[in-house]
Write a structure and sequence with these properties.
- The chain has a three-stranded mixed sheet with strand order 1-2-3, with helices on one face.
- Strand 2, helix 5 and strand 3 form a beta-alpha-beta unit.
- Helix 3 runs antiparallel to helix 4 and helix 4 runs antiparallel to helix 5.
- It contains seven helices and three strands, in the order H-H-H-H-E-E-H-E-H-H.
- By secondary structure, it is an alpha+beta fold.
- It folds into two domains: 80 residues, no CATH class; 65 residues, 2-Layer Sandwich (Alpha-Beta Plaits), CATH 3.30.70.
- It is elongated, with a radius of gyration of 26 Å.
- InterPro entries: Phage_Mu_Gp48.
């Protein structure tokens, strides 16, 4: 909306007061347009910011504005995805929405267990408690959930990583690390 003059008849351009009036109105229209765009962003979980608290209330999630926005979005998306019959695909979908990475889900019917292996990132996810809560809500109560994490092993670093790469890698990425 750079110039409102283009929407008016040409004879208004000859009136001296109109450039000031249109300039002021143009600023107001641009602010209104920006506000409308910002409100529209709140209708989608992936772009919402201040509207996340509304999404959390709709999904029955406690509002915690101290959590990072991306983490809050994952909680909401997980809750929205976790509706329907529980399948391996659904469990995978929910876990990945929280983890922002790839997981492998394996059913172990004889053990009454569902195994979830985090494969694309190393270490324990920072929001593991949230992932556990979301999965516990959708996985039937008679099934246990077994989590498996990926770590760097000696075979992964010996003659593979340089000393500077090793020094730059935090201990929580290694098996037995802090």
């Amino acid at each position: 909306m750079s110039n409102l003059f283009q929407y008016l008849p040409n004879y208004y351009q000859d009136i001296r007061e109109f450039p000031n009036l249109i300039g002021t109105e143009n600023e107001e229209v641009e602010q209104l347009s920006a506000t409308i765009d910002e409100v529209l962003e709140q209708f989608y979980v992936d772009t919402a910011t201040w509207g996340l608290s509304h999404w959390e209330r709709i999904c029955g999630i406690p509002v915690d504005e101290s959590k990072p926005i991306e983490q809050r979005r994952s909680v909401i998306k997980s809750k929205l995805r976790g509706i329907g019959t529980v399948t391996v695909a659904l469990i995978k979908n929910v876990a990945e929405s929280w983890y922002n990475g790839e997981v492998e889900v394996t059913e172990q019917p004889s053990l009454y267990t569902v195994k979830i292996k985090f494969v694309s990132k190393l270490g324990v996810p920072p929001n593991l408690a949230d992932i556990q809560n979301a999965l516990r809500e959708i996985i039937p109560a008679h099934l246990a959930i077994d989590f498996e994490f990926s770590y760097l092993l000696i075979k992964d670093v010996h003659n593979v990583m340089t000393l500077s790469q090793l020094e730059a890698t935090t201990l929580d990425k290694f098996a037995g690390g802090a």
